[in-house]
Design brief:
Layout lengths: L1 E4 L9 H16 L3 E6 L9 H14 L5 E5 L4 H13 L3 E4 L3 H13 L15 H9 L5 E4 L6 E6 L3 E6 L7 E3 L7 H11 L4 E5 L6 H10 L6 E5 L2 E2 L15 H7 L3 H9 L14 H7 L10 E2 L2 H14 L2 H15 L11 H11 L7 H5 L2 H4 L7 H7 L5 H13 L6 H14 L4 H13 L7 H8 L1 H9 L2 H8 L1
Parallel strand pairs: 1-2, 2-3, 9-10, 11-12
Antiparallel strand pairs: 4-5, 5-8, 6-7
Helix pairs in contact: 1-10, 6-7, 9-11, 12-13, 16-19, 17-21, 18-20, 19-20
The chain binds one RNA strand through helix 4, strand 7, helix 6, strand 12 and helix 11.
Length: 479
RNA sequence: GGCGCUAUGGUGUAAUUGGUUAACACGCUGCCCUCUCAAGGCAGAGAGUACGGGUUCGAUCCCCGUUAGCGCUACCA
């Protein structure tokens, strides 16, 4: 069993492409097949090497490793020309000299009068003499497939079932452009043939192209592979996902702090169902369960909320150890990484990660939401001030509380809690008032882990320093 | 316009391939817990399966039509 993913490098890898790649990969990994990567870069204008790099990078990030390739179509040009010539001499293709201008004029005329249009096969019957005469004159030409004029092309799609077209509605499509480059149709079938692809799994936007390709297989007298077309991924407005809908490139999800495993998990469930109750599945489970039978036919809407949920699930359940390198990268990005965190303070760092991971949605949140744990310079966010630092009694109470905590013989969870609560009782205020004020002062946030866990994590020294500091007071009085 | 495909709560999907009070997850609402926010627990709203016809004792499931959406209709893939 051999499958492939064949993106064209005209843009970065988008979520639809990633889903196609993932399905192919899951299919191969689940049944001992080979996953081949091929780059369809025959469109010179729109393809670029940078995009090839982007795509490879995105696939690596997703963890979709390939067994063969990447093969570039631009390196197989001789092969396409050879077969095109073979088709030409077998009278299964012909040279067409119609100019783009002529063609578009005809097409527009047809459209204007509401008539359907397909290439009118003007050059199909050209005599060999005329052809060589025109070529001698240097007239540019393309090679068109000489399709059958009657009959039917049908195939059994593994997902959509039987799909049939009448051949007369298929035009004589172009195989080789006037610049000598093959078109998509020639490229795919030849590559899939040469690379011995057994299952062609791709987006449903190719479903109407398949009959053309089958005609080519027939002309070449080669067996047709299995086809499995995948429903498309749409934006919230049910139109095809595009930049209009926000982020479509998988690298932007990577950069935003999503993790590959939950990202794949989410993608896998777009158009496919494991038929199990649990949806949060590891990559291994996805591999084990994936089957073409579970793929459905209708297009799916990309739901960011659910993706975020998968991500937070994964984060919450992941061992701190595994998250460590990712968080380190985020801290470096924020400029608050310190070498000790990787050595002497490593164990401490892991406990902080365990503390934070339960209420985080993205990896980047560790560096933003959790900044106060790793750095002493942090802002107290406006929301925290507003919610927790307004009380007039606070400027007097907090330094005293700090002193009380500072004098504790043991600085643990229970000790800090009972110290704070008795302090509150002595001063006739609710513990919550002090707790929340401490939250703002210690973390700079209105949202944080349990306050005594925070204190213990920060340690006595930093806790006392932050609680007794008074720089926040003036700001409050102004506001 | 032509051709093709699809159609279950707001979203993703289920429903022993004709027999269920139409299920699960995300999201949403309320309550509990509580030091915030999550998480967790509990309760709940939300679809009668696009619409209309058939077939059948019985249709989410089979057939036809309509509508809508999507795809293809390039010397783009």
């Amino acid at each position: 069993m051999r499958v492939r993913f064949a993106p064209s490098p005209t843009g970065s890898l988008h979520v639809g492409g990633a889903r196609t790649a993932l399905f192919n990969w899951l299919f191969a990994r689940g049944r001992g097949g080979r996953f081949i990567l091929r780059i369809e870069d025959t469109d010179r204008e729109r393809s670029s090497p940078e995009m090839v790099e982007d795509i490879l990078g995105a696939l690596r990030w997703l963890g979709l490793d390939w067994d063969e390739g990447p093969f570039l179509q631009s390196e197989r040009l001789d092969r396409y020309r050879q077969v095109a010539n073979q088709l030409l001499s077998a009278n299964q293709a012909y040279r067409c000299f119609c100019s783009t201008a002529e063609l578009t004029a005809k097409r527009q005329a047809a459209a204007a009068s509401g008539k359907p249009w397909k290439y009118d096969a003007t050059c199909r019957g050209l005599s060999p003499d005329r052809v060589s005469e025109r070529q001698a004159r240097g007239m540019p030409s393309v090679v068109r497939f000489k399709g059958p004029r009657e009959g039917e092309v049908a195939f059994e799609d593994r997902i959509f079932g039987r799909i049939a077209h009448r051949t007369e509605q298929i035009e004589d499509f172009v195989l080789v452009r006037s610049d000598g480059m093959p078109t998509y149709h020639l490229g795919v079938v030849l590559d899939d043939l040469d690379m011995k692809i057994s299952h062609v799994m791709r987006g449903a936007d190719h479903i109407s192209n398949t009959p053309k390709q089958i005609l080519l297989y027939r002309a070449l007298q080669r067996p047709v592979p299995e086809f499995a077309h995948l429903p498309l991924i749409l934006g919230p407005d049910r139109t095809r996902l595009s930049k209009r809908h926000g982020a479509t490139a998988v690298t932007t999800y990577r950069d935003q702090g999503y993790l590959p495993a939950p990202f794949c998990n989410f993608l896998a469930l777009l158009g496919w169902s494991s038929k199990s109750e649990a949806e949060s599945l590891s990559t291994d489970e996805l591999i084990r369960r994936f089957a073409l039978e579970g793929v459905n036919k209708s297009n799916a809407v990309f739901d960011l909320e659910k993706l975020a949920w998968f991500n937070s699930q994964y984060l919450r359940n992941a061992p701190a150890e595994r998250l460590f390198p990712l968080i380190r990268a985020e801290l470096e990005k924020e400029g608050i990484w310190k070498e000790e965190l990787g050595s002497s303070d490593r164990a401490w760092m892991l406990t902080v990660v365990d503390l934070l991971k339960k209420r985080v949605r993205m990896v980047s949140d560790f560096a933003t939401q959790g900044r106060a744990f790793f750095a002493d310079d942090f802002e107290i966010e406006a929301k925290a001030r507003r919610k927790f630092l307004k009380d007039k009694a606070l400027p007097l109470l907090m330094p005293d509380l700090a002193a009380r905590l500072g004098s504790l013989p043991v600085f643990g969870l229970e000790e800090t809690e009972s110290a704070l609560r008795t302090f509150a009782a002595e001063n006739g205020v609710k513990a919550g008032l002090l707790i929340n004020a401490a939250r703002a002062l210690l973390t700079g946030k209105a949202v944080a882990p349990g306050i005594f866990e925070v204190m213990v994590a920060l340690g006595r020294e930093r806790t006392v320093a932050r609680l007794s500091g008074t720089s926040w007071v003036e700001n409050e009085q102004e506001g």
